[in-house]
C-alpha cells in the first residue's frame, strides 16, 4: 500500500510548509533540492532520509512515480540538506526491498505497516 495521492496533496500544501523549519536539523529528516525535468524550476522537497555507508536512503512512501523521484532520476544528481549540512548526491537508484534492510529498525517496522517496499538510494560525493 502506497500512501494515497490525496494525502500527498495535503502534505504538499500544509505539512511540508511546517516541516521546512525542522528538516534541516532534525535527525531522520532532510530537504531535497532538485530541478524540474521539464520546467527547470528549483524544488525543495522535505523527506525522511537515513544514512547508508556511501550515501543516503529515502523510503518512497508515495511510490516511485512521484515527480520529485522522476526529477532526481532524470538529473542523476541533486543536493540533500540534512542536519545542517549540504551534500551533493548522485547516482540515484530505485530499489525494491521487501525486507527494508537499509532503514533503521523502528522505521523498518513502521514502513512494514504501510507496506512500503520501494526506496531511492543516492551516493555522497
From TrEMBL:
Any GO molecular function: oxidoreductase activity
UniProt name for this protein: Nitroreductase
UniProt lineage: Bacteria, Bacillati, Actinomycetota, Actinomycetes, Pseudonocardiales
Domain of life: Bacteria
Signal peptide: none
Amino acid at each position: 500500500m502506497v500512501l494515497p495521492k490525496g494525502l500527498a496533496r495535503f502534505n504538499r500544501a500544509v505539512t511540508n510548509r511546517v516541516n521546512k523549519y525542522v528538516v534541516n536539523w532534525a535527525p531522520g529528516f532532510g530537504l531535497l533540492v532538485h530541478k524540474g525535468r521539464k520546467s527547470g524550476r528549483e524544488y525543495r522537497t522535505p523527506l525522511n532520509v537515513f544514512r547508508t555507508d556511501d550515501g543516503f536512503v529515502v523510503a518512497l512512501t508515495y511510490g516511485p512515480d512521484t515527480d520529485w523521484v522522476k526529477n532526481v532520476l532524470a538529473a542523476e544528481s541533486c543536493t540533500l540538506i540534512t542536519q545542517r549540512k549540504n551534500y551533493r548526491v548522485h547516482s540515484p537508484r530505485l530499489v525494491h526491498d521487501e525486507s527494508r534492510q537499509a532503514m533503521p529498525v523502528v522505521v523498518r517496522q513502521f514502513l512494514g505497516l504501510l507496506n512500503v517496499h520501494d526506496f531511492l538510494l543516492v551516493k555522497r560525493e
